[in-house]
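> example.struct
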């Protein structure tokens, strides 16, 4: 098989641009292929986020196809813009290719990125490519947000929660965590297929983020490391307490079918990789949003901490969430 180093860097860049097709930002002021890209930002403020996925930390060969890796690299970064209520515009991609990566596999990565870009309405404006000891992809997602009359970016932030707010989550967290575990076991069934796809091909909830922002939701975060762990960032930044009702938590039907309700509940609380949105706002505002479930409240007690309550009010033991600095795999 042909390996990328057998092509010159610039020949490979031209190959990438051609393979991206409509996912390449060929319509911006300075398109991919120059020293830097140039474009007109959407809205008044630029919103940017960078995310890296690394072989051995975020995926292992055999569990994800090369195209899945490309899709996830885009989705995980664009999801941060969704959590801010920003409009995605372009991404920049830096790739470090390990010694075993073939040109055919790299083509598949680009195909997965292109699919994700088209699905999530963002384009590749440029990037960089090098050889490394292992493979990783770093994606910088850039989008836009309007400015208010005081010149502040109109985005949802982690420090926007207030006592008396309700807490809601989109979708049914836990499917991706179930999918990872079932992929490791090699199980095949309709629930397994659904769960594995949730892990392999997450989708940034950009439309929901924009709708929530327009309705006046001040505070949000996406679920990458686990619902409770990510809620903890809101509690810390807002200096409030957060309480979740365990019975109100929506559970993934595929996770229940594969592992049972108790495990599905723990996956929802701590599994991560769902890229659903946690939204914090007044109860009436959240009720106006479709596809979200109110699961708790913001309180004055225990500032900086998240407590999950059982029906009798007793705390529910919270499983440990994901931390990319810990060794693979998460169990």
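> example.seq
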């Amino acid at each position: 098989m042909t390996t990328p180093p057998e092509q010159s860097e610039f020949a490979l860049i031209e190959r990438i641009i051609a393979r991206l097709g409509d996912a390449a930002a060929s319509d911006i002021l300075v398109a991919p292929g120059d020293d830097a890209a140039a474009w007109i930002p959407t809205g008044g403020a630029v919103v940017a986020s960078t995310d890296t996925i690394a072989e051995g930390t975020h995926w292992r060969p055999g569990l994800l196809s090369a195209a899945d890796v490309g899709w996830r690299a885009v989705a995980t970064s664009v999801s941060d813009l969704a959590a801010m209520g920003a409009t995605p515009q372009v991404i920049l991609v830096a790739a470090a290719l390990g010694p075993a990566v073939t040109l055919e596999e790299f083509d598949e990565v680009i195909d997965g990125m292109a699919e994700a870009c088209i699905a999530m309405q963002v384009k590749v404006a440029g990037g960089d490519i090098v050889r490394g000891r292992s493979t990783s992809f770093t994606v910088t997602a850039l989008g836009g947000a309007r400015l208010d009359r005081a010149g502040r970016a109109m985005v949802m932030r982690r420090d926007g929660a207030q006592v008396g707010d309700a807490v809601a989550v989109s979708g049914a967290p836990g499917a991706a965590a179930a999918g990872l575990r079932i992929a490791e076991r090699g199980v095949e069934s309709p629930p397994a297929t659904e769960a594995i796809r949730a892990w392999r091909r997450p989708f940034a909830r950009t439309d929901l983020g924009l709708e929530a922002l327009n309705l006046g939701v001040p505070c949000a975060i996406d679920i990458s490391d686990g619902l409770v762990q990510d809620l903890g960032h809101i509690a810390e930044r807002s200096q409030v307490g957060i309480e979740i009702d365990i019975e109100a938590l929506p559970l993934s039907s595929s996770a229940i079918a594969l592992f049972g309700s108790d495990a599905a509940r723990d996956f929802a609380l701590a599994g991560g990789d769902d890229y659903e949105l946690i939204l914090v706002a007044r109860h009436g505002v959240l009720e106006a949003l479709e596809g979200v479930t109110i699961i708790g409240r913001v309180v004055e007690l225990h500032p900086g901490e998240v407590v999950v309550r059982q029906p009798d009010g007793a705390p529910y033991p919270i499983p440990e969430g994901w931390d990319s600095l810990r060794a693979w795999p998460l169990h």
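> remarks
Strands lie at 45-54, 87-97, 123-131, 136-145, 166-170, 219-222, 241-245, 277-281, 292-299, 306-309.
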